[in-house]
Amino acid sequence: MSILFRIIIRIAVATLMMVAQNRGQAATTTDPSGTFLTEDGRARVRVERCGSALERICGYIVWMKEAADAKGQPLLDKLNPDPARRSRPLLGHQLILGLTPSTEGRFAGEIYNAEDGRTYGITIWRETADRLKVKGCLLGMFCSTQTWALASSAAPGQLVGATGDAAGPTPEAEWAARPTRPEIAKMRTR
């Protein structure tokens, strides 16, 4: 049982690492958008609306305490089940994969854990204006919850560019499309 608990903790830690800066949208009590420091302090994760799918939530690692190996090379996603992705840097990759709204201001879906190359169930929600709860589950029943703290300023080495830009994190292909101005206006009038 302790191995499963450690796996769940690692998943939650990886998720925390990816919470990142808000794109300038004001966060409501239920909107999880923002950049968050993971509970273990190893990463910052930018949480934001996914491209043109504004009802969904994505997350990206925008800062890592240790983003390079002993030789100064970027840490890579070596355990990814897709061989084409194994050479991508961990800094800037997407780990929260299009969460959908659920009950009580929560968002549920999947998170990718680069530490083991697997995807797990996750639920996130705002606990307070400066705290994000991240609940990761293995097999839907072995769960662990962490609290991530809102990062008020950028850390040295943090990706601060917009998602998809050269100085920002890289979305998975299905979440890469950005909303057009008419789509944004439409969402605001709902």
Proportion of residues in helical segments: 10-25%
Task: Please work out how many helical segments DSSP would assign.
Answer: 2
Strand content: 35-45%
- Structural class determined from secondary elements: mainly beta
Spatially, the strands of the biggest sheet line up as 1-2-3-4-5-6-7-8
Q: What's the main sheet like? A: 8 strands, antiparallel, barrel
Q: Which fold name corresponds to the CATH topology?
A: Lipocalin
Quickly give the CATH architecture. Answer: Beta Barrel
Oligomeric status:
single chain
CATH class: Mainly Beta
- Series of H and E elements: HEEEEEEEEH
The structural domain count equals: 1
Mean of pLDDT: 82
Q: What does this protein look like?
A:
The chain is mainly beta and 190 residues long. It has one domain (2-188): Lipocalin (Beta Barrel). Helix content is 13%, strand content 35%. The chain contains two helices and eight strands; from the N terminus they run αββββββββα. It has helices at 2-17, 181-188; strands at residues 34-37, 43-50, 53-64, 94-101, 107-113, 118-128, 131-138, 142-150. The protein has an eight-stranded antiparallel barrel. A hairpin with a 5-residue loop joins strand 4 and strand 5. The longest helix has 16 residues, at 2-17. The protein is globular. The termini are far apart. Mean pLDDT is 82; it is low at 4-27 and 179-190.
